Amino acid sequence: MNNPVGQEDPPRSLDQLRSLLAGVMTRAAPTHLGTRAQRTLAALIDSPRQTAVYSITELADMVGVNTSTLTRLAKRLGYSGFTELQADDVLVALGSSPYTRATVEACRIAAAHGIHIIAITDSYGSPLAACANETFITPTGGTFFSNSTAASLILAEGLLALVARSLRNEALEALRRRETLIDELGVATPPGPS
């Protein structure tokens, strides 16, 4: 981790980024950013959805700066690069009543760590929605005794496709990192015989 600005760790949530910018602007933070960098950071904070999913080129165009400006800003804030500033930590939680304790607890822990949570659930009253930054409600009723997850899974696949399309090469690199992590953890079941 790059930490030239005197802070322990780079901001891990939108609220932490807002606080850092406020501190920089009032000179209360140990971080010093020039006027252009402050304006650029403010524009990114004001457009969190675009910042999370647009490519660095699209964001640079949106903000009116060069891509190298965004990379320098991210490094100045303590990130290893711009992709780390964007959307490194997102938890997509899927569940409907009765909610599993493990899923609800994962959401609570992720929220406590400033991780952005997207909930795909059956009600705004669900414990997953209570922890989430974004909530999508999907129907779960069906002809069987148990809840249907078809609508939730289709929505999750659609969201992942949109994110992958927006991130392009960054999405492929993130998938490679995920696959490496899964291999290191040894949690994947090897494929069966063909």
Care to give the gist of this entry?
This protein has helices at 14-25, 35-46, 48-53, 56-63, 67-76, 82-87, 101-112, 127-131, 150-167, 169-185; strands spanning 90-95, 116-121, 134-137.
What's the layout of helices and strands?
Blueprint: H1 14-25, H2 35-46, H3 48-53, H4 56-63, H5 67-76, H6 82-87, E1 90-95, H7 101-112, E2 116-121, H8 127-131, E3 134-137, H9 150-167, H10 169-185
Parallel strand pairs: 1-2, 2-3
Helix pairs in contact: 1-2, 9-10
CATH third-level topology of the largest domain: Rossmann fold
In the CATH hierarchy, the architecture of the largest domain is 3-Layer(aba) Sandwich
Please report which band the strand proportion falls in: under 5%, 5-15%, 15-25%, 25-35%, 35-45% or over 45%.
5-15%
| Gross geometry | globular
The top-level CATH class of the largest domain is: Alpha Beta
- Overall number of structural domains: 2
Order of helices and strands: HHHHHHEHEHEHH
Please identify the structural class as seen in this structure: mainly alpha
Continuous helix count: 10
Q: Give me the count of strands.
A: 3
CATH superfamily membership of the largest domain: Glucose-6-phosphate isomerase like protein, domain 1
- The residue-averaged pLDDT reads 82
